[in-house]
Amino acid sequence: MTTKLFRQDIKVINVGLARFYEDLKYQRAKVTKVDWRPPAGGNLKLIQLLSKAESEEVANANKIAVKKIVTSSPKLIDIKRARDVIGVLRGNMTLLHSGPPIEWERMSGPTKGGVIGAAIFEGWASDARQAEELAKSGQIRFETCHDNSAVGPMAGIISPSMSVYVVKNEENGNIAFSNLNEGVGRVLRYGAYDEEVQTRLKFMEDVLSPLLKAALIITGPLDLKNIMAQSLQMGDELHTRNVASSLLLLKELGPSMVNTDFSKSDISASIDFIVKNQLFFLNIAMAAGKSIMDAANGIRASSVITALTRNGTDFGVRVSALKDKWFTAPAPIPKTLFFPGYKEEDANPDIGDSAIMETNGFGAFASAASPAVVQVVGGDVKEALRNTIKMSEICLIKDKSFPIPQNNFEGIPRAIDLRRIIETGTAPIINTGVANKKPGMGTVGFGILDAPMGAFIRAFEEYASTL
Q1: 153 with 248, same domain?
Q2: pLDDT, tens digit, 9 for 90 and up, residues 348-359
Q3: Rounded to two decimals, what is the model's pTM?
Q4: Is residue 41 part of a domain?
């Protein structure tokens, strides 16, 4: 038997360590590589908890969560003043911010800049110094967007007088909100607050928002799922690229905008504002994403992730079974393509509620639909496809409602499973804008990052303890 074995060609299957595979390849052996790693990186405690989480109860709970996600029907139904629809913004100096809860002292530069700008916009302060004193004194109250059925990009500041999109998930009946997108450059969400920012915000409140509201009344509720599905076919990933979706929105609302009683100059200025802002649809998509994930939140035993978010200091995670609990880790700095004149030391750690798009299966999860985004940070078409395939390993389904042509029309990976993150050691990938770490400065570039595993490990340990 031994003699026969060594008279024939030896074919090797290498499991695990890549070094063994490389050595055999160097010796021209016939070898196949199997990329295997022990579950949870070999952590015995986590392996035991994973075994506990593989139950019929969890499987049934996740089926409910998946159904909630897939059948959701987000519609843009209105545009209103934030104080009229978000209860905590009524009657006192309260601001919403992105990410998990945080106090003024720990806020990052762009979040503080956003607070200063909002305080000036509201008339609570006449300048930056006075606004900062108000914030330090505790007179301004801070609440998270996510805790108030809202989401905001980057600093995510929503103040009482700002207009917000009202998106209703018609299948589930819940409502979500987001503010309007200001464009790129020196904008409030990146922490800028100078006169240019204030002038733009005033235009958005006095002209743009009322005009869009009037057009929406003529058009009727907009089917956002339809716009989002079309835009994936046209090269958007609906996080850092919303070129197609913004133009599809204008296609829907443009004729009605022209048929309102607004002046020709106001209509022209508003259309010009939308056309020049390739991220205009992002905030609407975020509100849609929030309405979807809130529908899947609070399902006992479900391991589905319902929020990924950042405030520029902390990265926060929510899990369906644990509903409104936050699990955090320090926010990392993205791998960034910097605009001219900026460098790594200018970048703030990751910030914004816009990762609600990755939570829904868009953004980096849909990289294959928009390889141009990966190219921004030195990747290529193959890497974009790899990112989508990699993210499918931590999700429960591929949603055929959102097919990606570049991935053989497979659906986007959706319903992130906390258990699979722990088992594989694979963290969600996120596409993102990058803010200057100093308040008042604005944006420095665009980037990509892996979410910090610490937040998921903490979430999983508590999740497993409830089973």
Answers
A1: yes
A2: 999 999 999 999
A3: 0.92
A4: no
